[in-house]
Amino acid sequence: MSQDQSTFYEEYEVFSRKKDGMPLEHRFSLLAPNAEMALILAKENFFRREPIADLWVVKRSNIRKMTQEERLAFGRLDKAYRETKGYADLVARWRAFKEKNGDQEVEIDDAGI
Q: Which of 6, 63, 83, 109 is 20 to 30 Å from 91 by CA-CA measure?
């Protein structure tokens, strides 16, 4: 491909949804001179193969990737309480609490709620 052709064509990413309510899935990348032609090429590729509910064509340069700092920030968030596995060690926690405080009964004050 010559220099003029490489600047003429742009890269597009194609996403589709098979049925309403399902997530978008990346299907393939394509080269096209503009967004309209990219959509036509994507439709031609899909309508011959399988029915779809939704088709998205996005210029690759418009897709932003997370930086390493942003990834690290997401890694620091501990949200185990939102998942059932966050409560999997509850018996062990109670046992450790009772061993630390003895077998004395623990009173829970409902008035402060």
A: 109
In 3D, which of 18, 36, 32 has the Cα closest to residue 60? Answer: 32
Q: Which residues of 38-77 are buried (b: 16+ CB within 10 A; e: fewer)?
A: bbebbeeebeeeeeeeebebeeeeeeeeeeeeeeeeeeee
pTM above 0.70, yes or no: no
Please give the domain boundaries of the chain with CATH numbers for all domains.
Answer: 3-62 (3.10.20.520)
Nearest to 16 by CA among 40, 46, 61: 46
According to the model, what pLDDT value does residue 36 have? 96
CA distance 12 to 26: 11
Do residues 57 and 42 touch, judged by C-beta distance below 8 A? yes
* pLDDT for res 86: 66
Euclidean distance between CA atoms 65 and 13, whole angstroms: 14
Kindly report the average pLDDT of the chain as a whole number.
82
CA distance 84 to 69: 28
